[in-house]
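Re: that chain you flagged

S.,

Sorry for the slow reply, it's been a week of failed gels. I finally had a moment to sit down with the sequence you sent. For the record, here it is as I used it:
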Amino acid sequence: MLAGLFGKKKPAVAAAKPAPAGPMTLESGMLSFVPGFTTRRAIERRMGPAIEYPAPGWKTWAAAGLRNQRWVLSAIYRGQVLIGIEHYIAKTENLPRDTPPANGVFKVQPGDIGLGNRITSLPEYFISQAGREGGARSIVYQHAFQARWEHGIAIISGNDGRIERIALYANHEMPTVPEPPAPPPSTDPGDRLV
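Prediction finished late last night. Pasting the structure tokens below so you have them in one place:
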């Protein structure tokens, strides 16, 4: 009877496994996008100038897509440092015709996560992002996951079991610095020079 009055006890939520020690990055053959570290100059030197889209402050390129999909790469800066990068399948036909191309294949590292991958292939440190059924998140995406590291957050969203949006953001209170910290030295004997 008391359980009926006070409701059932909710099961405990499993803790997420820690994210990699280093930053999560969006990689292409041309450039490594590291929120909080990569400079606008480095991006524009390799990618060329972008258009302002989808909102003021965002700089956007059109990326290669599959079949009839239009893929988009958008960056936002604080001063001259990248603080957010998104790679997503366009949900509208309103992408301006003069959007410059973003050549290359873009994947989140570590994890080799790309658009079109299965949501079930995400590494274990991604946890389901909170959101109510029927809320704003579910209007565009059925699935939403996040992973955090020392300097930022990665958000992966999708529909029908496939990834349709990848977003990496620097912590908003993080002071941006010009270069990412050096990775720790490898302990693998095969990585040593002879």
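What I noticed first: Residues 30 and 46 are 7 Å apart (CA to CA).

Talk soon,
D.
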